[in-house]
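Consider the tokenized backbone below.
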């Protein structure tokens, strides 16, 4: 059984969550770096990582990792990699993306053409061909360079993993599904506790929470590039992994998950997204202003992503809005609240210092995940909260 090095990019600041997910799947983690985790696994691990990991942006199969500061070094290093172990004679291969940070080589187009040339030379010699038709499966190559160190990999996922397939309708500033899932997993929320998102937009937090509660694997309803790599990942491994995921699903559960938003159109979108995700019966969506947020029960959770001033006009309204958020939080007895936002005056207007604050990068936008922790319910009450 061949063991591969698999590299999983994730959101900066959320590595610990993805690390735990990989560990829970039973694989050995070999490296944790900013925004990526490397682990070892066989062909089945490629299927399982793509289908089960909630916080991963994609699953990359590392073909090589080396230092290079000149194009000649780059060519030689790429030529030295065992491409024939992965790419068949009719495979279509190209560098889909090259990113370079603090490195001597940085021109994406030059890197792309040098890498392709070196791959053609290597594979040409192996298959005894000078020209490739490239009519078969796609093998997109991704290259990331940090301080002259290249990680060269094949992209097993294709479309980024945050595209689960359920979110067709979005709000103006939707949070990525992978980030929403990771943030939920970062909190102590469990499916027997109430969860409300008062700014739910397209429903991402409630939907991801319901999928976690019902054990629905995030990749169950989409395709992956590596499904076509039958030359070293037998189709049967994908079928078995889908079966494993389907066997785990339990939607016949009792949960209290709610999503509210002031905009009736996004509530409609959230409902139809939840339907596509197969969790609409587990979530109560309703149009409601955050000012009207109440709940008679204790020990619930708010996990939310309020407006953070994406548009200038909105910025002026933020102090009043965050003040309102602070007031409604105060009325929720013994609740825990978690707020992801890039609004710098969050604590000032909510009127309370967060118990914990974690820096998270939402793409290029720096945000904070503010954690206002409530008490744990007494043990005997824990089953009765819903
Ligand atoms: C940053 S977006 C949330 C995006 C959401 N997490 C998603 O993935 O689609 C903020 C949302 O807050 C809503 N909103 C703005 N003011 C509100 C208020 N006073 N009460 C409730 N919702 C409000 C907006 O309509 C918008 O959908």
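A designed sequence for it:
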């Amino acid at each position: 059984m061949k063991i591969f090095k698999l590299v999983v990019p994730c959101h900066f600041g959320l590595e610990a969550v993805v690390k735990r997910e990989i560990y829970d799947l039973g694989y050995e983690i070999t490296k944790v770096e900013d925004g990526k985790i490397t682990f070892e696994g066989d062909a089945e691990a490629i299927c399982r990582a793509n289908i089960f990991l909630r916080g991963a942006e994609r699953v990359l199969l590392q073909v090589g990792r080396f230092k290079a500061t000149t194009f000649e070094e780059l060519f030689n290093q790429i030529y030295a990699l065992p491409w024939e172990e992965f790419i068949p004679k009719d495979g279509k291969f190209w560098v889909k993306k090259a990113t370079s940070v603090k490195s001597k080589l940085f021109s994406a187009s030059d890197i792309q053409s040098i890498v392709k040339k070196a791959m053609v030379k290597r594979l040409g010699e192996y298959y005894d061909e000078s020209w490739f038709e490239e009519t078969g499966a796609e093998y997109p190559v991704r290259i990331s360079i940090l301080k002259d160190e290249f990680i060269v990999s094949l992209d097993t996922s294709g479309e980024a993993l945050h595209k689960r397939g359920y979110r067709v309708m979005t709000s103006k500033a939707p949070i990525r599904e992978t980030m929403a899932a990771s943030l939920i997993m970062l909190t102590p929320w469990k499916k027997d506790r109430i969860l409300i998102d008062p700014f739910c937009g397209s429903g991402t937090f409630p939907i991801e929470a319901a999928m976690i509660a019902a054990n629905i694997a995030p990749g169950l309803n989409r395709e992956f590039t590596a499904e076509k790599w039958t030359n070293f990942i037998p189709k049967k491994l994908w079928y078995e992994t889908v079966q494993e995921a389907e066997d785990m699903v339990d939607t016949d559960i009792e949960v209290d998950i709610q999503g509210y938003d002031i905009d009736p159109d996004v509530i409609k979108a959230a409902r139809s997204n939840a339907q596509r995700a197969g969790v609409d019966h587990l979530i109560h969506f309703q149009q409601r202003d955050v000012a009207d947020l109440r709940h008679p029960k204790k020990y619930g959770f708010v996990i939310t992503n309020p407006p953070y001033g994406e548009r200038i006009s909105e910025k002026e309204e933020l102090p009043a809005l965050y003040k309102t958020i602070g007031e409604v939080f105060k009325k929720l007895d013994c609740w825990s609240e978690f707020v992801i936002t890039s609004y710098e005056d969050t604590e000032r207007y909510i009127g309370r210092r967060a118990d914990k604050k974690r820096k998270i990068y939402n793409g290029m936008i720096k945000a904070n995940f503010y954690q206002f922790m409530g008490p744990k319910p007494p043990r005997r009450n824990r089953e009765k909260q819903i």
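The chain has a mean pLDDT of 95.
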